[in-house]
Batch of 4 targets.
Target 1
Amino acid sequence: MVDDKSAGYGTVKLAPLASDSESNNSGPVIKKKAPWWSYIWDYDPNRTKVERKFIQKLDVSLLTILSLGYFIKNLDQTNISNAYVSGMKEDLKMNANQLNLIDVAWTTGYVVGQLPSQVILTKVRPSVWIPSCELVWTILTFCLAAASTSNQVIAIRFLVGLVESIFYPAAHFLIGSWYKPSELGKRAGIFHASSAAAAMFSGYLQAAVYTGLNGTLGKAGWQWLFVMDGVISAPICLAGFFLIPDLPENTRAFYINEDDATLARKRMDDVGRAPRKKLGWSILKRVFTRWHVWALTILYIIFINVGPSSSINPLSLWLKANKWPVTQINIIPTGQSAVQLVTTVGFAILSDYLQNRPLVMSISTFLGLFNSLCLAIWNIPVGLKWFSYFISRAAVPYGPLSMSWANEICGNDAEERALVLGIMNAAGYAFNAWLPLLTYPATDAPRFRKGFIFSTCAFVAQFIITGVVWWLQRWENRRKKEKGRESELGAVPGSAVEL
């Protein structure tokens, strides 16, 4: 058996994957060989049938509704980029700088709403707060279809960012409140992969809408995109009120009985994941006197800002500059999202299997560094340029893995965990509100020379901060072990060690 507590995963018990036999006082015990799928999905031979069914309930309900929620969030977030290259720019007489301003407006709202939302999350049930905000941003998405000026779009996008700000850190907080470390990475990866599915779907949807509905009822194709996004989002918002189970200590979900709730609390207690306590001013001292918030926030600031903002897709603008048809401009970049989807799930599975978040995060960083370096050089073979554009999304899995890592590093303090996740995301997007204006201004399209050079340097910095956080985590775990040994010695009568 392996105890991986030193890796920051809590106490995780893993059975050997090969056939083995052991002897004890009762005679030899033959261990069943682990199934082939244990290399892909979490497998624990000591897990009871009741616990297996409970985890399946969580996957079908919590993981599904959060993934669908992130799907519609990203659908409503990325539709601006699709609408811009599909006629909105011409119809609203927008210039390239206004696209940047629309993105700044969304990001500003996203940053402003982040921390208040995380505080509210410690007071209000997630099953009420999250779907309510989803419903508001769905209504605002319908409003975008009626916008007639770029200023209206900017104002609406600010409000969209404000209500969307609650979702990502809240979802990671919920996932980290129900799943063990050996289960966490895969679920966080699957959750995050829904954003790639949304980007793909938005491209296909815009292409279909532009072809089939452009001009219908006097509405342009880009306006119909917002209408269709709203129609898709509404039922998912309503389902959230019933399927989000809140937290193990206060769940009232219809599909979780009292035995399930007791099991959930025990599972979290076994891995040192603390439940919520009454929120007080002491939380500020606990958060800001630990290294967690400072190092993890720097890590996430770098990750969020290694590339352009969400409204700027260098591949789409490169295709537009080379006179590709609108339909293909919307469809071809969905290949990037496919790469993101596969690598996000694949890297998440690998990180759970290896039980080593920083190693897999570094692989993701390397792929991002390679792509940005190639595009910074620019004068490269056309095939390599296409490859670089598509492989760029392999750098995205770093994000959900870092959130899973933060969930584990801060696992002993639920309030710290909630605030640190919120601060990480808010700080990252606080820089993202203005930094892409300097690094990836739309006026530099399609080459973005200084942007790709900046990304190359940022990925190097990402390597460094990943190593720093890894070292700090190991240092903290060593200190905890030393204190534990000292406490045990101090508790022995006649011990020479004084504490």
Target 2
Amino acid sequence: MFEHSDAVLLARIQFGFTVSFHFLFPAFTIGLASFLATLNGFWLWTKDKRYLDLFRYWVKIFSLAFAMGVVSGIVMSYQFGTNWSVFSDRAGPVIGGPMAYEVLSAFFLEAGFLGIMLFGRERVGPTLHMIACLAVAVGTATSAFWILSVNSWMHTPAGFRIDPSTGQFLPTDFWEVIFNPSFPFRLMHTVTAAYLTTAFVVGGVAALHLLRSRHRPGSANPATRTMFSMAMWMATIFAPIQIFLGDMHGLNTLEHQPAKVMAMEGHFRSYPEGAPLYLFGIPNQDEQRLDYAFGIPKLSSLILKHDLNAPMAGLDTIPREDQPPVAIVFWSFRLMVAIGFGMLGIGLWSLWTRLRGRLFDAAMLHRAALVMAPSGLVAVLAGWFTTEVGRQPYTIYGYLRTSDSVAPLDAAAVGTSLIAFVIVYFAVFGAGTYYILRLMGRPPMEAEPRLAEVAESPTRTAGITPAQQQLTLKANRNKRNGDLT
């Protein structure tokens, strides 16, 4: 079946598939952990039950998404030692340290306090429970710090030398390795994207229940309205910040990885007197041209160099073998940008309805927010494809080519494992995602049950019906409140 396939391409597809699945969960949980810490803080500050109900509602979803993120991330580490063992051997002295720090300082911080966050409110007291919530939020952000530092180093390597006898990359300056030229921009852009991803998922869930409340009175309780309001504030504030950070990241990429920007812009030829911004076109890499191009003259030069007449080099200055796959980079970049401006539109729209006092009555806004609920997840994947495919044909930009990073592979073995990954991932993570969607499908309740109550209560597979389960939950709440009637 794979006799005539390219083993390197199959290994790239396999890693891309597993990373894409994994990336969705941290992109959601980084923001959700901070959202939970905020809700818990508001509950302790105001004693408003809405915040406690929302915390208990979203912490169930967080626990599932966090678990799936951990499991899906483990697989990638094995691929470093199998399909990409040559890359691991060559780059290990540089990237091994930061990846170990990610486990020691970030994952242990998350895992160590996660149990207290999920189950410890009544056991450890409000102060320590709040500290646990903050520790998990900080841990997720710290994890992003170390992982993005390693990834950024692969794009803009610094602080190293190459051993001439072994070909290994050896660190010479730890701080230059960590704070390499693209790292601050990639970190801010990615973490902000995670917060926006969470905001639009939360906003979409709230919008769903606000829309249902038009036909089901009582579906939109105060907690639902609070949830929608908080999500829209995040969209209003962070969407323009994200666009600004994206522009800064693009300027940094132009400085250090010009071929990637050429592919993003679809510039197959150089423009000595100002380059157009192509809104649409079909990249034809074989003929080195952009077919059916539609663009705005000189706007690309204005955006990238702040001068309408600034010259812009094109892919005609890059050897064909060093060019990234233009079509993927060109279209994934446009998808990411389009979603970013869509988020900005939702944020401004929500601000307008808020000022008019109609935030919870604007059905069209709620429908748009529901449609945009998964937009953050799509955008982070589009951005990841833009960044990683745009780095090709290198794993370490300018130094180590992808074809020289892969282990001696048999295409049949890689193809077979790829098929196995696809089947297992869609079965396992598909089931987990379906259950998360089921949880999101019901609105937060007044006196939302704790995670411990849900975990301890009987399930339908044990012969207990949903009605009986609700009675059990109610009895547990009454017992906890001292009302045995």
Target 3
Amino acid sequence: MSVDMNSQASDSNEEDFGVNSEEDEDEDDGGDEDDQADYYEGVASDVEQQGADSFDPEEYQFTCLSYKESQCVLTEEVNTVAAALKVSPSVAKLILVHFHWQISQILDSHYCFLCVFQAPQSLQCGVCLQVVRRDSLLALPCQHSFCKACWEQHCTVLVKDGVGVGISCMAQDCSLCMPEDFVLPLLPGEELKDKYRRYLFRDYVESHFQLQLCPGADCPMVIKVQEPRARRVQCSRCNEVFCFKCRQMYHAPTDCATIRKWLTKCADDSETANYISAHTKDCPKCNICIEKNGGCNHMVSKSYFCWMCLGDWKTHGSEYYECSRYKENPDIVNQSQQAQAREALKKYLFYFERWENHNKSLQLEAQTYQRIQEKIQERVMNNLGTWIDWQYLHNAAKLLAKCRYTLQYTYPYAYYMESGPRKKLFEYQQAQLEAEIENLSWKVERADSYERGDLENQMHIAEQRRRTLLKDFHDT
């Protein structure tokens, strides 16, 4: 929705890490009600009751573990491997890290794990070259001997730099890692030892194929899954939503490698794309400067038109597929390098503009969501129904953001997708989803003008479009 700019707007060890588990459980869910993570709460069941396909491609089983619970999981696996291989727990941890904690692979392998600490063969330290007493020399199973003072300095420096499992032998070209029971006695002071334990825990979790640390600020929670996949998970403590596989913002249907490539490209080309970041455009009929102040692309000025392509909205329903699809130049490979470079930039800006537009729409629709919440509160206070009576407005706004979030991430997917029948199918489903989201956005912004049944039916259609696209194109 838009208006004339000159007019009024329209419509860890919990003791070590300082974590109190009891307070965590009693803590408020955190975050504002318009937080994007919150949009996924309580919407799916409402839609399913209206007859939508009950299968959700984003459904994924995971468990949120506290620091102590995570330690119990790790300790149990360490004890299993230590007993099976007849090695110490500290050595078992290094083996587990090497195999990404896949115990079946370790037990099925035929590796010989050399774990016995050897007596030094020389009385000379391999670093400072000083001749010292035999009991002052220490050696790993690799038999590289160094004096205790050099070991202490080596370990202290690395731990202060944030290294945990990665502390290895000081000998050149020797990559043998030092077990924790070798390192801990060498560290001066409990503070440094506590840091080392925290770094070890971080490394153990990050190397575990079924575990991920929550990326939320100062959050000690760990997410555990049975099968590691690029799926949406949410921390029960800080409500952080992220992709389990890459720990970045959830990005379906785009895969982890592609979204990294896209975000890097956007950062590298940010100056090139600056001109499309403005919130204003000229009305195609009267040339008045207008500002987009709502989430949908259905613009109202002196005429009705599409914010993205500036085309007439009256015929837009039949042309929506063309609006969201980039028209490749089939003859570009036969043209000059300069022409190919211009075409590449044109293609990137086409997808970037739509990616950025949906991101801004999410922000604007979050404001609409807040206004709906306030309106519901006002009606309840004035005895104009209960929260249950008006819950459908709340659900509609949340579902709108959920669908638009998915739609935003379809554009990096389409940008890197190879031309062919599969891309045509994807672009068709993308256009279908986009059309229904714009219809839903228009109705949510004007909820008082539509019957409840009409709005809920639009929710049902939009969610079906979203699930169909993810079912066919989400990485499985």
Target 4
Amino acid sequence: MTQASPTNAALAARDLQHIWHPCTQMHDHERVPMVPIVRGEGPWLIDADGRRYLDGISSWWTNLFGHANPRIAAGLAEQAKTLEHVIFAGFTHPVAIELAEQLVRITPPGLEKVFFADNGSAAVEVALKMSFHYWLNQGHGEKTRFIALTGSYHGETLGALSVSDVALYRKTYAPLLLTPILAPSPDAYEGEPGESPEQTAARRLEAMRDLLERHAGETCAVIVEPLVQCAGGMRMYHPSYLSGLRALCDRYDVHLIADEIAVGFGRTGTMFACEQAGIAPDFLCLSKGLTGGTLPLSAVLTTPRVYEAFYAEYNAGKAFLHSHSYTGNPLACRAALETLAIFRDEPVLERNRGLAAHLARQLEPLRDHPHVADVRQHGMIAAVELVADKSTRRPFPAEERRGLHVYLHGLQNGALLRPLGNIIYFMPPYVVNEGDIDHLVRVAREGIALAVKNGA
């Protein structure tokens, strides 16, 4: 006699007995359902009761080629039979070597050294420490600060949070954080009336120039999310800002850190967002899609110039001081290699361009919605900004949680849409089809109708 499979209700009850979930006020689950997922198929997630949800946000922007992707799963199974993990200090293994070689081959030119870590926040920590330590080794210990953009988000470990501009986090953890120098974001939504995104970028570059003029002597690096400030509200800007910023960093002798953790691997229409500006940063942070959303892994790529500042006799005391137990984990590296193989063997970016164009067409009618102030898109990332007053762009009060209506309506209608406050966004896996996109947009439009009518 076989035991019955657990239901959603049973699994949710067990979960809430012991698990504390991220980015969650656990009290919400007295009325917001906990959704136990037991299986994934391509862009779909299936819960314990058999309901299906189209993953419109790629499970926090990680999944590229669908859940339970057979090619990645087969590679992992093969790797698990050979080597699951080995210390990465003084030891190495073939899959990490091959992954580093391939990353150097496909990333912007000049990035020839690869440092592995295990998640996006850790990658940012590595880049921040490496930049500071570079200047220290060069005899410039006075360089201790970082410049970040307003509205930025780079992770939730203390260093990454220190260069993020999220008011709630900074208010709560301020005594523990470094204080960054904040430059105004080139966010096109904040442009002056009649100003093009390129003109907004140029104006904000002047503000960055002024900051560097005053603070370059104490600044290690400028850190940005190229083209899209994701967690800050899917704020998007013109590529010319990146090319101008690269020139400013060179002029004032500070590093440029490109956080492509969320926007890398095809999300913005090119393999890496920096390509659209024709630049290479001094540090490139990668994670999320690196393994196709299968296992935690991150990488920081940097230049020979940076590497050589640490290369010395042991007693010189110049070695970089950072490690993780699971650095270069073979299973995660194998998942990454299989992910890169899919990019190599299939016309992923070409197909994405078609899907992105279809998504743009489906979202176009929302531009005329009386409570939509903006519809914006870079490749396979699109966002809809809900406001209380379209003419003034006055937002809905945050405490009304209008976006929650869209989320709940999505769950009831087979779609995972998890808004950022009052910003409804779409970042689906690359294996969706046009019908899937139609479904996501239809459910979102219905949810928006409910959200603007009712407060949560």
